[in-house]
From TrEMBL:
It comes from Dyella choica. SUPFAM superfamilies: S-adenosyl-L-methionine-dependent methyltransferases, TPR-like. This is Tetratricopeptide repeat protein. Signal peptide: none annotated. InterPro entries: SAM-dependent_MTases_sf, TMTC_O-mannosyl-trnsfr, TPR-like_helical_dom_sf, TPR_rpt. TPR repeats lie at residues 167-200. Keywords: TPR repeat.
Length: 428
């Protein structure tokens, strides 16, 4: 268990197996080996092991809870819910299971039940900072009135008060204040945070996003890493279920309409691949599918899918520049929102494409006829049509199509995006 906790999965697996050779049905070894198998992308084996452990010790709340976590991360939400309920039957005060139950109800869009479950968690564990953070996030995601956003402010304040390491609560506090148009207070949250931690990339970026400092040309690497490493575990359920995320599908549909040539024939780059949500959409086109992302945490999640031929932790522009004429398709869903001025990254993508290859990407819409990029209070950039068009043309693309669609929801409202396809000329 010490090896496991220290992250030495290979040693831990060997040692758990040694225990099981000595005592074939030692339930703790089976349980923890099950968790470990899931971490090493062998989730089915993990499920079998924990189920076997539960046959021996059926009233083990942690084992039910961990089994629920595997089902949740594999997208089997109903099975996960059953496990969390069993964990609670075995130990009614199991806060993690109550917390997970609330999350999984929210992910199934059972809003009333999720609210009840979060409320119960806060009654049971009034000092549990994460509970307040999740309740705040829930209230903002499903806000039906200004009052709900105001309540989210209270929750984020409380979460931070209880746990000064819960920096996501502080970041969310600023965002809720901004949503309520309490911009001075939002700016103050980030200024105070920066005064305490002058080198922290999140308040530096978010202060600019609130208009309290000059926006950088693109989100700094350490900001992207920090945000997405912390987001990796909950990214899929947050985006797909709570934020109605559809950028990958919308972009894949647009690309599918343009491609000619045999399925499975292309060298494909998933640029800013995150946890790999685009992988099943790109796989049918790919002879070889490569994913690149700045966040090691996100890449680890993508690796668990087992569907990429290669995954690399790298900054996107640099990666593209280092791979001239390597790809037939460069596909980038919801990633260039972290870039302000697009020209440099679009030039790099152009160079990384083979002649005739396609670049496909989404970015958020900034209204207006001028050539403009705004850093929005969400921390993401928004681009005008004119900016996207000019950046593509000066990067040298020939055939260009810029459509619009909804990419996701934010604060209950649809977020409009440009859905862009651009081709490198066939001559080179
Ligand atoms: C909103 S997620 C989208 C992930 C994935 N494309 C999807 O649709 O699920 C944005 C991703 O872009 C990555 N990213 C942002 N800026 C980057 C950069 N400069 N280089 C590489 N990756 C970057 C982040 O780490 C994050 O995983």
């Amino acid at each position: 268990m010490q090896s496991h906790q220290a992250g030495d999965l290979e040693a831990a697996e060997r040692q758990y197996r040694e225990v099981l050779e000595l005592r074939a049905a030692q339930p703790d070894a089976m349980h923890y080996l099950g968790v470990l198998c899931h971490q090493r992308a062998r989730s089915d084996e993990g499920v079998r092991l924990i189920e076997a452990a539960l046959k021996i010790t059926p009233r083990h709340p942690d084992a039910h809870n961990n089994l629920g976590n595997i089902h949740k991360e594999c997208g089997r939400l109903a099975a996960a819910e059953r496990c969390y309920r069993k964990a609670l039957e075995c130990g009614a005060q199991h806060y993690n299971a109550q917390n997970n139950l609330a999350v999984v109800l929210e992910a199934q869009e059972r809003v009333e039940e999720a609210f009840e479950a979060y409320a119960k968690l806060l009654r049971q564990a009034p000092k549990f900072a994460q509970g307040y953070y999740l309740m705040g996030r829930f209230l903002r995601n499903y806000a039906q009135s200004k009052e709900h956003v105001e309540q989210s402010v209270q929750c984020f304040r409380k979460a931070y008060e209880l746990d000064r390491h819960n920096l996501r609560a502080l970041e969310s506090l600023g965002m809720s204040l901004y949503t309520l148009n309490r911009i001075k207070e939002a700016v103050q949250v980030y200024r105070d945070w920066l005064a305490r931690e002058p080198d922290h990339p999140v308040p530096r970026h978010m202060l600019a996003a609130c208009g309290g400092a000059q926006a950088p040309l693109r989100a700094a690497d350490d900001y992207v890493r920090q945000v997405f490493d912390a987001f990796a575990d909950s990214f899929d359920e947050q985006l797909l279920k709570n934020l109605g995320y559809r950028a990958p599908q919308v972009l894949a549909d647009a690309l599918g309409g343009m491609l000619t040539g045999a399925a499975g024939a292309f060298e494909v780059l998933d640029a800013g691949c995150g946890t790999g949500l685009c992988e099943p959409l790109l796989r049918p086109y790919a002879r070889r599918l490569v994913g690149v992302d700045l966040s090691g945490g996100m890449i680890e999640k993508a690796r668990l899918r087992g569907g990429y031929d290669e995954l690399e932790v790298a900054e996107l522009t640099g990666y593209l520049q280092a791979h001239p004429a390597a790809y037939d398709i460069v596909f980038s869903a919801d990633t260039l929102e972290y870039f302000g001025e697009l020209r440099e990254v679009l030039e790099a993508a152009h160079a990384a494409l083979r002649p005739g290859g396609w670049l496909a990407f989404t970015v958020e819409v900034a209204q207006g006829e001028d050539d403009r990029v705004d850093l929005a209070p969400s921390g993401r950039y928004q681009h005008t049509h004119c900016h996207v068009e000019r950046a593509l043309s000066s990067a040298g693309y020939s055939q260009v199509s810029i459509g619009t669609d909804t990419l996701r929801k934010e604060g209950g409202q649809p977020v409009a995006g440009w859905v862009v396809l651009a081709q490198r000329t066939a001559q080179g």
